[in-house]
Design goal:
Length: 332
Amino acid sequence: MESVRLGIVGCGAIAQWHATALKHAERTTITACVDVVPAQAETLATSTNSVACSSITEALDVGVDALAILVPHDLHEKLVTEALEAGVHVALEKPMAPTLDACERILATAARHGDRVFMLTENAQYWPEVVMAQKLVAEGAIGEIVTARSWHNFGITKEFYPSDQSWRFRQASAGGGVALDTGSHWMRPLRMILGEIDEVVAVTGRLWEKMEGESLVRSLCLFQSGVVASFDVILATGAVGLQPHFQFTGTTGEIVISALGEVRLFDGKDWQGTVVGRGNYMDSYGGVWRDFEAAILDGKPLDADARYSLGEVAAANAIVRSARSRKWEKVW
């Protein structure tokens, strides 16, 4: 194989973001767009010069080497199983599944088809600003990590929450609230830089009446290294300010990642810090597809294997348990 023929399964909002990134892919071409809503499949197929389909079976007939599964969380296990058993590579949107038991079943299916690449598309793994910060920390730019902060306050957007009936509002479809869904993008960078989380303590809230899961999380995460970091995610009901996305505090300085993509190093040379790089969150999706095609075509190990993503699922579930028990809860 010299290139990958990719089918997109689920043509909603996130599929549009992935399709935009794939326009710049050098060795991947979208050949099929699958959705149970014909209009959504047709719209994405038209914009990607591919074929609209109503099922994975139809996409296989069109011709695909891999499938990107971008559907509500409760459908992940069924469709991943169907895709892997059909003999294609699979890139699955986060979270792998709402529960660790379901995740383990998916991983067991992937293991039975070990000649296929199975990837969890957590784009934060490739977030340029986060990768810059990770390198700075590894190089000792701020000494030993003392603590950190992860913050995401965002509002309702019509593309991801088109109505009060959005699947993200339903527990049965989403499997939880913002801790499990959006929160994974802000949890992964903490894990990349600080290691694995041992315990969490949290409070949660429901700001949106129609949303069955939590729409507010304020939490502390105790990492196995002994470092404590704050992790906060809010689906806001009003306008939001531009708080820094991340702040890493070390024994000799700090690294701050702004909401505008700026990486600023505070090392004592300038009280305002030094801008050491700039990035763009949307560029992280390009990283996803470069890694996926390299794994398929070159045999390159993925930057993070699918099992690694269970750390976000386990932490999200522990956050929900802690909010109920009002105690520290073990992640594993």
